[in-house]
User: Fold NAD(P)-dependent alcohol dehydrogenase from Pseudomonas denitrificans.
Amino acid sequence: MKTLGYAAQNPQDPLGPFTFERRSLRDNDVAMDVLYCGVCHSDLHQARNDWGFSRYPMVPGHEIVGRVTAVGPKVTRYKVGDAVAVGCMVDSCQECDQCRKGEEQLCRQGNTQTYNGVDRVTREATQGGYSKQLVVREEFVLRVPDGLDLSKAAPLLCAGITTYSPLRTWNVGPGSRVGVVGLGGLGHMAVKLAIGLGATVTVLSRSADKRSDAMELGADALLVSSDAQAMKAAANSFDLIIDTVPVKHDLKPYMPLLDIDGTLVMVGQVGPIDEISSIPLLLGRRRIAGSPIGGIAETQEMLDFCGKKNILPECEMIRMDEINQAYERMERSDVRYRFVIDLATLS
Ligand SMILES: [Zn+2]
Ligand SMILES: [Zn+2]
Assistant:
């Protein structure tokens, strides 16, 4: 099947229209029309080869909401017309201990990324959601719960699950004290999801400018990290800090904020971190951890949770041909809080 998308042809040039083939349906495949696709920071990084493993041409996009148009003969869970979603991965070995536990994101053989990955059958490059059609095996297709606004749900598939998974891993619930560093695509979802789970949520920011934004999202407090006195007063007052900042930054100021056995989990930055003393880690039995997305079962749980609580990202809808300006604005953090492409604007 021929489909139209938007691709990066190399690290320098803007993305532009690109026609390519989607595979014909395998027995367990679901074909869908893509309705909406969120724009993740990693799309920009991968389009520009910031991480050094990009292959071109590349159609980015891994926050995908669509509608089923056809299913293979062995598909049992989806039918034509269903509202479905696809996130950051489209396949895994399905056999290792992690896959068997439903932690496909941690597959021992590596999961297959939705784009800039390699198809496990044909060894062809996978291409993402900045496109009109998508074909994905049934096991990696998610159901969008009834009532969830399809035009806003897409960012849940990366920003949502990336922040929901650590909240669940560290058992956040009523009474938990959660801090969120960085108030972008991931950070604003961390705030909404932690509140939804019943936690007390504080946004940590370098300046007080973000106070009204944090309050609008429902946070209980804003802690200004450049205010030494306020930081001292907040010592030992968090169980979990979710650090969503996408660039290298100093973690030292956050460590004393964690209570005993508290964890700072990094979900944004990919790469080396600044030197840090083990003293606060040893003395308070504190941890620094990382967390990727979640497994398929947990992603479905997150979608169902958002459906039940009507938790949705704050989105700015764009046309497909506005993607290059959107990338420029993202680099300036000029978006509240996630761009979503309306694929109806691509023809
Ligand atoms: Zn992403
Ligand atoms: Zn596996």
About this structure: The pocket of zinc ion (ligand 1) is lined by residues 40, 42, 62, 88, 158 (CB under 6 Å). DSSP finds ten helices and 17 strands in the chain.
